[in-house]
Amino acid sequence: MKHYHYFTVGGVLLLVVALALLAFPAVAQEETPNPLGEPPTFLRGIYDAWTGSGHADVTAEAFNHWNEDDPKEVNSSCATCHSTPGYQDFLGADGSEAGTIDNVIPVGTVVNCDACHNSVSIGLRAVTFPSGVELTDLGDSARCMVCHQGRSSVNSVNGAIDGAGLTEDLDTVSADLRFINIHYYAAAATRYGSEVHGGYEYAGMSYQPRFDHVEGYTGCADCHNPHTLELNVDECTTCHEGADSLETVADIRMNGSLADYDGDGDIEEGIKAEIEGLQAMLLQAIQAYAAEVAGVPIRYDALAYPYFFADPNGNGEADTDEGGYATFTARLLKAAYNYQLSVKDPGAFAHNAKYVIALLYDSVADLNSALGTPVDMAGTHRNDPGHFDATGEPFRHWDAEGEVSSSCVKCHTADGLPMFLHNGATIAVEPSNGLACSTCHNEIGGEWARYAVNEVTFPSGLVASFGEGDDANLCINCHQGRESTTSVNAVIARSGAGSDDVSDAISFRNVHYFAAGATWFGSEAAGIYQYEGKEYNGANQHVRRANTCTECHDVHSLEVRVEDLCVDCHEEIEDSLDVHMIRLEEDEDVEGIDYNGNGDATEPIYQEVKSFADALYVAIQNYAVNTLGTAIVYSPSAYPYFFADVNGNGEWDADDARYTTWTPRLLQAAYNYQYFQKDPGAFAHNPDYVMQALYDSLEDIGGAEAVAGFTRPPVLEAD
């Protein structure tokens, strides 16, 4: 991923001033010598800002740790970030080879102007992280990232585990394992997440890559004063009302973070508090695992090396006879590493909260798998609602390519929808971490108004609308599917095949996911396959104040508004899962119909619709075997969904190949079956319309016997 930065006039002037500072020797005071020296008068402001920073703290352990060593010099593995000569040596700014420490680095220096302002550092743009990953085009932030990247990674932890021979044996104690410390203030490792693998990332899990903040605040110095290192909190209030201090910045929580990550029932607390809740949970799990599985209780001290200590008496306090913890298993080492990572970047909640949340969550879950009494994770959440789930396949699918194809950009990147609304087309762009505020809101004059869309064209070519400028029209730009009656008919027509003729020109057509808009508008959008000569319902007509996407769903969490909406008419509902239990028919033409013929005309409408789909799947399988001679099996989670069932076990196996024995009749039925599967809210969005199409598919592929007992919902006239 490339990141573009530009020099400004102010940036050039700052560099000139800094270089001027280097031209003047430090002036020592006679009575009280200043170890930092004195600048020329015209640079006093920058100097004073720097002297108050951690980079200039001559008393800090970070610059004095080696004072008692013999010889008295900074260890070469530490010199890069704990002295100015070491930083210059590592960059090659002293004439030595870059990337290594070639010289003896004396004690007694801090990180001063010479470190960041020299002929090499000003052109630095690339940094290699402990994982071996190199990031390029970093701009001025590269100077910061040389040090603020940590010293370990997932590779370090896996290397230690492999060396101990415990890759598969995660719960055996090994004397070869010791705690691995990521080191301090690894802000860059946190911010770039899964791109640089600073945390221990569990196999098979997806993690958020670089955290994308708003434009103009993407580099270290955009958010921090480069000399004081303090956060520029006065600029945070532009988007975060009331965030005018370090304390209130910690209270920030955006609408893309509405999951209760730590399970405490509070989704209004700052995201920092969510991380702290998970930290407490992880420490509890670490302590339980150490005592129960490793056999030696453990305690943690953030201020004392090596941080994790044996606590044989279990009192949780430092006792003189307790040393560093030496009873690590592979599983415990992974969790302890992630816990320390979360603690040693106090700004993790701002740098990349979702990455750290996932690391903490996965660590607890992994430890729980070995505990007799697991830590209670009820109510906790790892991932965000779909639109903001940066770890999900809808946003991570293109990471390997580094580019989202133009046909997918509109709905799978943060900037895709605005691009489409402005230009009527999209171009390929880099992957993004879910949608963003700017996806639906257009910032004009400090106001974040939603984009106004009057009507939407569906894949069928039909045009529909919730009303002029209605917010729900934004939703159906994406929640419309990618296929339709029109496209299925086009495939069949091009093949020239008869209804039961197998054709190589026919392949499965996938409507895509969550085509709720197409379902809602029924025959007005024709998203499902509608059979020639049949009539179908048009747009669903729900009650007046719950008749659009945004009226029924929370626009950020995407949850159905059960408590403040559904319960008004459906008293039996208590949570979103109860929506599946609804059956309320106000139209006399459909009241009391037993659609699936099981003798229960009062069962939830979801069950009625599902019965149609279940029967259709059986008919599809029967047709494939009896008519085509090639068994078929469906998997909702494996592309391309329909596979040849070679062993005839009726289940999808990993080695099953895609189904290729398609006829027009089979394609039509399979398309409609998939349509129902990929709109899990179809029973609410337009149940009668969906049942009409499923009934027609069942009748077409299975004959009159297949629909015996089923009742096709009558076609209702629009209001």
List the helices and strands and how they pair.
Blueprint: H1 9-23, H2 44-51, H3 61-64, E1 73-74, H4 79-82, H5 84-91, E2 105-106, H6 113-116, E3 127-128, E4 134-135, H7 141-145, H8 154-163, H9 187-191, H10 220-223, H11 233-236, H12 246-249, H13 271-294, E5 298-300, E6 308-310, H14 330-344, H15 348-368, H16 393-396, H17 409-412, H18 416-423, H19 437-440, E7 441-444, E8 447-450, E9 456-457, E10 463-464, H20 472-475, H21 485-495, H22 516-521, H23 549-552, H24 605-628, E11 632-634, E12 642-644, H25 664-678, H26 682-685, H27 687-702
Antiparallel strand pairs: 1-2, 3-4, 5-6, 7-8, 9-10, 11-12
Structural features, described:
The chain is mainly alpha-helical. It folds into four domains: 1-123, no CATH class; 148-391, no CATH class; 393-451, no CATH class; 463-707, no CATH class. Helix content is 33%, strand content 4%. It is built from 27 helices and twelve strands. Strands 1-2 form a two-stranded antiparallel ribbon. A hairpin with a 2-residue loop joins strand 7 and strand 8 (447-450). The two termini are 52 Å apart.
Give a concise summary:
With 719 residues, this protein is mostly helical. It has 27 helices and twelve strands. It folds into four domains: 123 residues, no CATH class; 244 residues, no CATH class; 59 residues, no CATH class; 245 residues, no CATH class.
